[in-house]
Amino acid sequence: MKKLLMFSLVFVLFGLSAAETDEVNKILDMMDKVYRADSSKFEMAMEIVTPNWKRTMKMKAWSEGMNKTFITILSPRKDKGIATLKVDQDMWNFFPKVNKVMKVPPSMMMGSWMGSDFTNDDLVKETTFRDDHTAELLKSDDKDVITIKLVPKESAASVWGKIIAKVRKSDYLPISQEYYDEKGRKIRIMKFSGYKEMGGRLIPAVMEIVPLNKKGHYTKIEYLKGEFNVKLKKSTFTLRNLQKMR
Amino acid sequence: MLLKMAWRNIFRNKRRSFIAAAAISLGLTALIFVDALQEGMIINMVKSATSSFMGESQIHNEGFTNALEVERTIKDPDGIMKGLSKEPLIKDFAPRIKTLGMITSPGNVQSLMLMGIDPQKEKALSKMDEAMIKGEYLEDSDERGVIIGSRLAEILEVEVGDRLVITVAQANTGEMSQEMMRLKGIFKLGIREMDRGIAFIPITRAAKMLGLEGQIHEIAVNFKDHKKSWDKNLPIWKKYSKNGNVYKNWMKLMPEMEAMLSMTAFSKYMVGFILFLLVAGVIVNTLFMSIYERMFEFGVMRAIGVKPFKMGLLVVFESGVLAFSATVIGIITSLGLSGIFSHVGIDYTGTEFVSVSITELIYPVMTIEQYTSFPIALVVFTMIVGIYPAIHAAKIQPADAMKKGTK
Amino acid sequence: MILFKMALRNLLKQKRRSVFTAISMILGFVLCSVSMGMMEGGFGNMIKAFTGAKTGHVQIHRKGYLENPGLYKNFTLDGNITNTISQIEEVRNFSPRLVSGSLAFIDKKTTATQIKGIQPESEAALTKLDKKVDRGRYFSQKKNSDSLFEIVITNSLAESLNADLGSEIILISQAADGSIANDIFKVIGILSKESDSLENRTVFMSLTDAQTFLSMSGKVHEIAVELNSYKNSFTGSIKIAKAIHQNGIKNLSCEPWEIIEEQFYNGMMAKKEGNPIMIFIIALIVAIGVLNTVLMSILDRMREYGVMKAMGATPWFIFNSIVLETLVLAFFSTVVAVGLGLLATWPLVVYGITYPEPVSIGGIYIKTLNSEFIPEAFYIPALVIAVSSFFASIYPAFKAASADPVKSMRSY
User: Fold this and answer.
1) Which candidate, A43, A46, A42, A34, places its Cα nearest to that of A218?
2) Three-state SS for C96?
3) What is the pLDDT of residues B40-68, one digit of tens each?
């Protein structure tokens, strides 16, 4: 009897944790693929604020899976036609004014992509929440919110000590992600809002990044319109396409 | 006979001879020692510049130094290193990989030069291990260890033990390769560019990140005798400059150093020249004085019947003998002085300016020239100096001299 | 008083001995003084060459730029600043600069470079950049007909990119408004190989072009200032900083070259520490020379002193008269020596000694080693002469004062 109890207890616990793991995995998956699917096409606006300047850009972006991304700038006029292509670990930029396709060397990845608070690193990133982090559910005050603590695995190429992510209980859509360094200092915050239907899915249309160690910096991306799982031409993610998209 | 007289004369008036001899021997010692010191300083300058990290000479693929293209690796590195280990002239060598990349911390991003080094070999060749101010130096077994300069650590706002991500572009494909590392130690070389822009990891790790297994960009080489690295005509330069590799010594690697050197060498000659004038002046003065003081004595000798020519010769011989004995003493003193210091070294750098990149001790350099040409020149010079008063002594009228001598 | 008169008379009476002794003092002084001046000149040469080739004597930056340079650590270049600076009397020249990193491309080749935006005339006056151009030409006044921006590049850059005169180079960098600066530039001049040591892989363009390219109109990162002498760097920088502050310009700091080129300065200082040893050795030789002659002249007059003693002079009197005699001689010798020293140093300062081969530092050729007038080169030798004469005279003075008159009168 006792043994059975023990066994069932273990089983239940195991089952519970399995269920939990399942749920966690789903959440992590969602966090990785918020704006992605097998393929997608979007038009978005990016607002960048720094102590030195303020800019708003309009861009069009295509993506396929996790590894292929193509972004071209629509406005301001000065930057129209500048494009970025990422395939797996490689990244290229195209500058129409000088008609130059340039492979981005690591040393030139000086922080920001086009001046925003996203780093080229963010776009190149090899790590995913799901595969490269260990996750732990935390107690949440809000019953509509699930809080997860993510710690990068030792072998992961990540500088963070931990990431506290909050997602909506109903659909696992991300609400916020707080990035901490290993000393426990909060370094940056990503906030998601403006949930609406777009291209057949519910997504947070507004994403904001606030770096806490740099005063006066702020980046906001707003998804204006887009579609998921569109048919994309094979040539979309090629260098030739970089140059053509004017 | 005259020589015997000359010899005896000198010892007769011990005090006078001693003073004159002292001038000569001390003068010689000064000339030799200053020359040795200056040589030592010049060498110290070069050693300081090369020993903190660069090395006395380096081997590269000939196209590498221009643009640091990752693919331009050294041809047949194993063969070269095997050869180097057998070279009798070579003391140490260290293989390195160099490439531009990016380093990220939670606080910041910075572009930098990533260098893969062999920690043990590097310890022998450069001063990296001595330059550590926090944490520890690298070891071969360090899987994820990286050491960076103090300024870089400040910019990245990291401390020993913190996470850092290093991104580089792989050879041939240009694909981005990222690795997570932990800061093992922080160094301070005192050279701003190095403290701000370089990170070191074990070379095997760097090779893996770049897809350059078994290949290297640079071999830094030090000689057993530092002076050999100055010799442009050593066959060893050509020996390792084949197959698209080049072997350069520090002169070619740091052309501005050569300029500083020629200026310093020139001032060495200037100082040597001035010193020689000084010593010569002292010798002339002393000699003249001692000879003029003895005019009475010479008068007596002439009165006895010594011929003018012989008189003159005697004076010259006296100068010669004096110079010779003084020179011998001078040589012994210099040998002692230079000998001691060339082993022990002279430490005079004020503590303010010392950093790891400056070598503190100066070792005076003893050269054959110092002990042959200098003494010979001095003896000859002294004898020539003795000619003028010798002529005077030869010409004097005994009566006059004996009268004057009582002054 | 009697002592003094006696000393003077004695000196004049035995002209030969006095002259010899004086000669050793004068010679020692002059050579010591000249060598000190030369050593200082040697250092001065190197510093002048180095600062003249690149840094200037003082630099003005936005606070914090030196420790951590960045595109945004810039300041406005306007009439206010330029007026303030030019009004300071020690300032001879100044040249504003804009500095940024960028990637340079020609066809498939690419490399990281530095962009330096400069005012062509000011920069040429300050660092003789125009003279460093080896192929092609420097920036000219007239507007070029081509629509492309003109650049002058270093030899090392030309080699890494396989570029030549007329090559079109694409530069890509981060502009100050966040956008990506990208444009095509034409190479009109390439610097000589010697300049590579100081300016590695740099692209020079006019200040206005750089400001346009990087969307930074009116801004600069640094102003390099040339003063009337590199020695005024600290006082000069303080003066400039004060004047700037008084004119309401905030947030700028002014640093002397010693701080900007810290490593070079440290190396120089460490080398300079070797000087005292050299000077000491020279002083030693001088002292020995003086000692020799003083000793000889005094010891040879033992007989004389014996007579004086026999006549009733006290030992103290004899002692003093000997010492005084020597010091008086030293005094007159020093006076003469100072005059000769100035005479000897002057042509060395003005004309210098020509190097067997001109030495190049960063593309600037130095042809002569010039001496410098420094007070140390005069008061230290004077001190050496005085001290060594004094100590040289003590032993013989003592001997003469204490000797037995009878014995003295018998000796020669």
Assistant:
1) A46
2) strand
3) 877 877 887 787 788 888 999 887 877 77
**Is residue A9 in a domain?**
no
Q: Alpha-carbon distance B173 to B29, whole Å? A: 65
- Is A42 within a domain? yes
Task: Name residue B55's amino acid.
Answer: G
Give a yes or no: residue A11 inside a domain: no
Q: Cα dihedral sign for B224, B226, B229, B231?
A: negative
pTM: predicted TM-score of the whole model, two decimal places? 0.76
Record: contact C179-A108, CB cut-off 8 A:
no
HEC readout, C254-322: EEEHHHHCHHHHHHHHHHHCCHHHHHHHHHHHHHHHHHHHHHHHHHCCHHHHHHHHHCCCCHHHHHHHH
| CB-based contact, A10 to chain C, within 8 Å | no
- Which candidate, A17, C412, A92, C154, places its Cα nearest to that of B297? C412
Query: Structural domain of residue A35, as residue ranges?
Result: 20-244
Cβ-based contacts of B264 with chain C (< 8 Å): 42
Q: Is the ipTM of this complex over 0.85?
A: no
Selecting from B20, B274, B405 the residue whose C-beta is nearest the C-beta of C31 gives: B274
- pLDDT single digits (tens) A31-70: 777 776 778 888 989 998 888 788 898 989 888 877 788 8
Place of tokens 């660092």: C127
Asked if A158 and A152 count as a contact pair (C-beta separation under 8 A), the reply is yes
Tokens representing residue A175 in the block: 């609400």
Q: What are phi and psi of C196, to 5 degrees?
A: -60, -30
For chain B, positions 180-239, list CB contacts with chain A under 8 A. Answer: 180
Residues 6 or more apart from C380 whose CB is under 8 A from it? C32, C36, C279, C283
Q: Characterise B190 by phi-psi region: left (phi > 0), alpha (psi -120 to 50), beta (else).
A: left
Please give the tally of structural domains in chain A.
1
CB contact under 8 A, B19 and C295: yes
Check if A110 contacts C (Cβ < 8 Å): yes
Residue A14 in any domain: the answer is no
Structure tokens at C390: 């004094």
The CATH number of residue A177's host domain is 2.50.20.10
A110/C178 CB distance under 8 A: no
